[in-house]
Amino acid sequence: MIAATTPMYPLFTTGFIDGNTNLLYGLIIGMFFGFILERTGFGNSKVIAAIFHFKNLRVSQTMISAIVTAATWIVIASYFGWIDYNQMFIPLVYVWPYLVGGAIFGVGMVMAGWCPGTAVVGFASGKIDAAVFMLGMLSGMYVYFIEFDKIAAFANSGYIGRYTIDKLLGGNMYTTSYLVTIVLAICLGVFMNVMKSTINKSEEKIV
User: Fold this and answer.
1) Which of the 8 DSSP states describes residue 83?
2) What is the pTM assigned to this prediction?
3) What are phi and psi of 139, to 5 degrees?
4) Nearest-CA neighbor of 113 among 98, 132, 97?
5) Is the Cβ–Cβ distance between 181 and 71 less than 8 Å?
């Protein structure tokens, strides 16, 4: 890969840095990310599980803030030519396995109070439940890969490629995709706060 003379993000796919440097940057960013997760309390399954009971909205508030911030900067950077949007990684969409996988992931997260990223942070800080979660996750991954041939047809079903919101609704990333993202983030935030307030009032009546 020939390095570009002018930096443009993503640095690796646009040719500004090589593969080894990209991995090094990923490692450094990952370490900082894990440190921040731990310091903000995301390395505790009780904090994560509380969101599903609408007791502690720290996780949802952080995620909503991150989504809005990232979406805004991607749009700004793409508009000014700092990012090559076409070089950004967007997962290919397989509708039916995504729906089933999302449901399994959601149930597992509710039951355990961990997601893969936070579990690694919890494991690094010595949480036993995080270690059990990771053992189960890795075991499930192992079974999935060795048995993949049996479910390959389903795993590749509903393929629609690199599909984004603007392709579904029309417009482009600067209008439709960005605006829908912001609206959904706001709606999620309002919903979470309404549910938390409703549950708090219900508990006050019981007391």
Assistant:
1) B
2) 0.77
3) -65, -45
4) 132
5) yes
